[in-house]
From TrEMBL:
<dbReference type="InterPro" id="IPR001610">
    <property type="entry name" value="PAC"/>
</dbReference>
<dbReference type="InterPro" id="IPR000160">
    <property type="entry name" value="GGDEF_dom"/>
</dbReference>
<dbReference type="InterPro" id="IPR050469">
    <property type="entry name" value="Diguanylate_Cyclase"/>
</dbReference>
<dbReference type="InterPro" id="IPR035965">
    <property type="entry name" value="PAS-like_dom_sf"/>
</dbReference>
<feature type="domain" description="PAS">
    <location>
        <begin position="4"/>
        <end position="74"/>
    </location>
</feature>
<feature type="domain" description="PAC">
    <location>
        <begin position="77"/>
        <end position="129"/>
    </location>
</feature>
<dbReference type="Pfam" id="PF00990">
    <property type="entry name" value="GGDEF"/>
</dbReference>
<feature type="domain" description="GGDEF">
    <location>
        <begin position="160"/>
        <end position="283"/>
    </location>
</feature>
<dbReference type="Pfam" id="PF08447">
    <property type="entry name" value="PAS_3"/>
</dbReference>
<dbReference type="InterPro" id="IPR013655">
    <property type="entry name" value="PAS_fold_3"/>
</dbReference>
<dbReference type="InterPro" id="IPR043128">
    <property type="entry name" value="Rev_trsase/Diguanyl_cyclase"/>
</dbReference>
<dbReference type="InterPro" id="IPR000700">
    <property type="entry name" value="PAS-assoc_C"/>
</dbReference>
<protein>
    <submittedName>
        <fullName>Diguanylate cyclase</fullName>
    </submittedName>
</protein>
<dbReference type="InterPro" id="IPR000014">
    <property type="entry name" value="PAS"/>
</dbReference>
<dbReference type="InterPro" id="IPR029787">
    <property type="entry name" value="Nucleotide_cyclase"/>
</dbReference>
């Protein structure tokens, strides 16, 4: 069955999604009732680029860049940004735009559809807060141990190799005493970032506490893990951080241990920590 323009308009106006349209000039020329009810503004106040007045200042540049970049290429896009609701509350919006064409495939602009995804985004943020270390953005100790326990039990059950490395930032107290705690934070973040970019997809990496990190390598024996650690240490030991008028040279020590017959993850970590202590003591 073919639908006429009036029928299309009824469908669009009654849609629970917030729908917009723009012309070839990138300017918006239509918003449906759902959009207008959300923002609480009349159509004339949303037309052109005025709809962006409701976009959160922190999201504005990214939002516009994604839109204009897609527009230039005539490609579909999807983005999330905060839009002010009529009661003044910022809500996360998922916005999907697609180019539309008329006549002989003549590009005529974009049509977009938006939904409120605040609950989903805030849920993801809460999960991240519960799982990630606030400074380095890698796994925190609690979440690391949760993931590691699963791998430990699998290794015990299937009798597979399982290695853990405890990692300690060298001379961290001296860095804090010399340059201050902000510099120390930069060192921790840079080392965490460097290691996180060097590990394999299935490795599990986290901050253990203070200036200590921990790395789990499942299905990896000591010799294999040792090669990985040596490569990683070479990269870490070349880290240089410019701070004010100084250059901070970072390095780290690695204590490696392969699970033998330990009956808990904690015991494996203790053994790896002993190896780290021996390395630090020998210097």
């Amino acid at each position: 069955m073919n639908l006429d323009n009036d029928q299309y308009r009824i469908i669009v106006e009654s849609s629970p999604n917030m729908i917009w349209r723009s012309g070839k000039d990138t300017l918006c020329n239509y918003f449906n009732t759902t959009w207008l009810n959300f923002t609480g503004r009349p159509l004339e106040q949303e037309m052109g680029v005025r709809w962006t007045e409701g976009v959160h200042p922190e999201d504005y540049e990214t939002c516009i860049k994604i839109y204009l970049d897609a527009f230039e290429k005539e490609e579909s896009f999807e983005m999330e940004y905060r839009l002010k609701r009529k009661d003044g509350v910022w809500r996360w919006i998922n916005d999907r735009g697609v180019p539309y064409y008329i006549n002989n495939h003549e590009f005529s602009g974009y049509i977009g559809s938006c939904i409120d995804v605040t609950d989903k985004v805030e849920g993801q943020n809460m999960r991240e807060l519960a799982q990630k270390d606030g400074l380095t953005r890698i796994n925190n100790r609690q979440y690391f141990e949760q993931l590691a326990n699963v791998e430990f039990l699998k290794a015990k059950r299937f009798r597979t190799n399982f290695s853990i490395a405890m990692i300690d930032v060298d001379s961290f107290k001296a860095i804090n005493d010399t340059y201050g705690h902000h510099a120390g934070d930069l060192v921790l973040k840079e080392i965490a970032k460097t290691i996180n970019e060097s590990i394999r997809e299935f490795d599990i990496f986290g901050r253990f506490g203070g200036d200590e990190f921990i790395l789990l390598m499942s299905n990896t024996n000591y010799a294999e893990a040792d090669l990985l650690i040596k490569r990683m240490k070479t990269i870490v030991d070349h880290i240089k951080i410019s701070y004010n008028d100084s250059v901070i040279h970072a390095s780290a020590s690695f204590g490696l241990y392969q699970m033998y017959d330990e009956d808990t993850l904690e015991k494996v970590i203790i053994e790896a920590d002993k190896k780290l202590y021996e390395i630090k003591k020998s210097r």
